[in-house]
Amino acid sequence: MKYFLLIGLCSAMIGLHAQQAYQPNHQELIRSYQHAALLDSTASKKVFRSSVKPQWNKDGKSFWYRINTSENTWEYLLVDLVARTKHSAFDHQRLADALSRLTGKKAEAGKLPVENLSITPGNKKINILADKKWYAWDTGNNELLASDQIQEPSKIKERGWRRRQEQRDAVSPDQKYTAIVKNGNIYIRSKATGQETQFTKDGSPEQPYGEFTWSPDSKTLIAYKINYKEDKKVYYILSSSPGTTRGELKSQNYMQPGDEFSTFEMYLINPEKGASQKAAVDKFDIYGTPEIHWRKGNNQYFTFEKRDRGHQRFRIIEIHIPTVTAKTLIDEKTNTFIYEQRIFTHYLPDTHELIWATEKDGYRHLYLMDELTGKEKNRITTGNWVVREVDSVDTQKRQIWFRANGMDSSEDPYFIHYYRIGFNGKGLVQLTPVKGNHNLAFSPDKSHYLDTWSQVNVPPVTTLNRTSDGKKLMDLEKADISAFLKTGIPLPEVFVAKGRDGKTDIWGIVCRPSHLDSTKTYPIIENIYAGPQDSFVPKSFMPYSEMQSLAELGFIVIQCDGMGTANRSKAFHDVCWKNLADAGFEDRILWMKALGRKHSYADTTRVGVYGTSAGGQNAGGSVLFHPEFYKSAVAACGCHDNRVDKQWWNEQWMGYPVGPHYEAQSNITNAAKLRGNLLLIVGEADTNVPPESTYRFADALIKAGKNFELITVPGLGHSDGGPFGKNKKRDFFVKTLLGIDPVNRNNGELTHPSL
After folding, report:
1. 3-class DSSP state for residue 676?
2. Which of 232, 583, 693, 718 maximizes the CB count within 10 A of its CB?
3. Residue pair 564/511 in contact by the 8 Å Cβ criterion
4. Does domain 167-238+256-338 have CATH number 3.40.50.300?
């Protein structure tokens, strides 16, 4: 028995050693570069009938769309909702002939320059916009005439929630009063008498009153005493502007973590009584003054939302004007963060209710609240899944139309699906039951919708559906990828492995070279972006990408969403709190090790990583905090110290006030920990992340005696370096991971224009 075990072990070891590292010779490398460049310019054109963008006609009962039928041809189709038919919108050859006769320019049936249509099923007269000119075409007698009348077809009206901008009109609604500011103080002029009455005396030009809002009954003026703080500036230099011989110093207002905001104190003014009183509410010290919601039928009450700086408290507060007292209706607190950009409230003044989205139970869900008491009337949605976005609220039918992910535990938890549900939490309708990532386009009256769904390796399908019950009425298009498959490019692989807790699934994708030899091993390169504001692994069909282009040089290129990113549970997201240096690395490393166990050709001893912006910070951090795993990193325009980056983004995740954890997690502070290979790329004109973030990192690396590469691209903004940076990134990984010299672009080895 021991003999056979020994034989088996030896055989396994022989097989392991037989799997050699992929290492092309110079000519093979040149061919790989040329092949990748060719695919960059051609692969994306090999997928047909994939995108349906409906253009609704005025009756709302029909629409047309243009679809590509080959690499250089397309056709126009008309869909009739009543008859449930799809056919050519017109005779393409007859129109081509008519255009050729009228314009004197040859028009081809498969390449008609039609940009817009006004068309009705059964009507022989069509208005056409072609080559930026309108024509009237009678399809009956094939008469085509130039037309001066521009007829636009009806466009779909997307009904989404948007925060209303508060009207800042100083004239009262009844036109009796006008609020003005003189030397920082409030005066109210009576239209009847022309007399001006002073209501405040402690204002000044430096700390004035302002930001007026009148009550609907004109009896109350809401105003604020303002303590203005001037925004600080950041600077950059344009070194190579055409026609100059000196660098140009540029600046912009740019708030960084810890900078002071202007503050606003709320006052209530009654022009009839001549009274001015401060409301019993704290100063507004972030994002300016609030939006005011007046109680319908009783202007003695209004409510507003208050966010506390640091993003750990959100309140809806009611003010009783006669007593100038405040009552907190909703008070949400958290030990980590409340995601500011995903706070959702929708007010229902007719019923004194509001719809509120919160993660208080661990997942983002909707609640119906009593606006008068602040008490919960009922939950609208519930479960271990996430409400992603509210598309519209129907107050008449008391229904909410929303998007969510994770409701079906049998599929990728990031797939977006569309739903409808009643305010009472009942009558849930699944509008998109097919497994995949969905995108809907509704008819103008929302009675029908187009559902386009796909997966990263499953081509798009578009169907026409009925809104009332979600029933599919007809198939419209299914993408044709036959030409793409002939290129030999493999579609991305979806891969799932457990995260650091041993329980949570981490999802990602894998791009492999089309010439992969499974008997050899290939370095892994991670495309990283661990910004907590979203999730980033593609979920819709992705036949070709920069990841695949890089893979063609001889790499396994992957992307995954580790803990700390959004769109999962609150606990999953909370990992990022005051912890951006974490970047989900523990999950990512385990994921790649699991990938290596599944595919022996994926070499987890040679791992690189690249990223831009927050991904640049992550890439830089990889070779500082996890050099035992990551061997090479390309970090473009990274926010290498969260104190140097923009205030709103960094305080959201790193908290306020700025504490020692900011410094402790800085790539700059930890520069001396660098092991392995690092390439830094920055555009000198970056207005998103100040370029000095990269320069300071470079300075710290130099002072620590570290070897690295730095590329500054003149005139370039926030990017990965453009075509030049893309080439440098490829060459860097070829040299440091494949262990061979990259191609020489200066001696004519590469002939493709993009190289």
Report:
1. coil
2. 583
3. no
4. no
